[in-house]
Amino acid sequence: MLLKLRDEGVRLPDAAVALSPWTDLALTGGSLQQNAEADPMLRGSKGARLASYYLAGDPRTPYASPLYADPTGLPPTLIQVGSEEILLDDSVSMAERMRAAGCQVELEIWPRVPYTWQVWAQILPEARAALERIGAFVQSKVEPQAMR
Asked: How far apart are the C-alpha atoms of 80 and 126, rounded to whole Å?
């Protein structure tokens, strides 16, 4: 979404947060296989089927798979991902690509948490901590006048 907004000349937000982002629908990340048994929410074998539901062509199309895009000009971004997720490599590779393009990006790899654990804030202390971290990141990046 941020790439499309940038390419259309729309003002981008002051910051972005990505939770366990799927950035490579070509399914090239090694964590798809390495973490397939450990990831309780997503199983590697479903990836190709899920990608086919979303795609209408090449899985390396930048708007579908931002890992293959030029991220130059994207806003400061916080990426949170679990250490045992099948999407771990998607997050790591995207953060590396953003850094190489001069973007400000913070990658947090949280140990032994499930895919998008942040939604479990009512029962997981790690989820509450992740949400607090997201709030602190956004507050540190958003212009004060925009918060009124």
From this structure: 12
